[in-house]
Amino acid sequence: MHDTADNPESDPIIAQANAQANFDRLVAGVPKSIQDKENQVADSIARLPGSAIKKLRALHQELAVISEAIAPYVACKQGCTACCHYSVHLYPIEAELIEKRTQHPRLRQPAPEAEFHGTPCPFLTEGRCGIYEDRPMSCRQHVALTNTAYWCDPSRSGMIQLPLAQLSMVQAAFQQTVEKDGRTEHLDIRQFFGSEPRFR
Length: 200
Fold this sequence. Notes:
By secondary structure, the protein is mostly helical. Helices cover 44% and strands 4% of the residues.
C-alpha cells in the first residue's frame, strides 16, 4: 500500500479531489454498453429461471464485466489487501456458495458479533483472496476512487469521506436474489467461518 509520508494523497483535500476527478472520468469514460448493462442487470437477473444460488452466480458474472470497465479509474489492484481487513457483510446464501465451492464448512453456530474492523478475512492468505471467484458482494462492490490506497488502510479508512462508485441496479439485483433465497439477515464473514485463515 502507498502509506508513506511523501504520498500526496495523505492530504485529505488532494485525496478527495483525486477521487472526485476519477469519479467524473469514470462517468464520462465507461462505455454506454456497460452503463446499459448496469441499468438492466436487476431485470435480467430477475428473469433468470432457477435457484437463488444460480442467480447469484449469474450476478457475479455480470458484475465482473462491469468491474473490468471500472478498473482503469480505481486504485484497487491485485496485492492490495487493505479492505480485506474490514468488516465483511455476508448473507447466508453467500456463505453457502463459499462453502460449496471451497469445501470449507461454516461454523456450526455463528460466532458472536464483534468489532472485526482491522481483522484479516479468514480467506486472505499470502496477500491473496482465497475465494476470489466466489467473494461476497460487499467485496465486489467496494472500490477506491483515489489514485492510491492510502486512505484504505483500516487505521484511517473512516477519517475522511470520499466519492463512491454507486452501482444501484447491481445492488437491487443482489437484494432481489437475497429475498428470493429468504434468508435476509447478514453477519460478518468471520461469524460464518471463524477468524483463523482457511487457506495455508
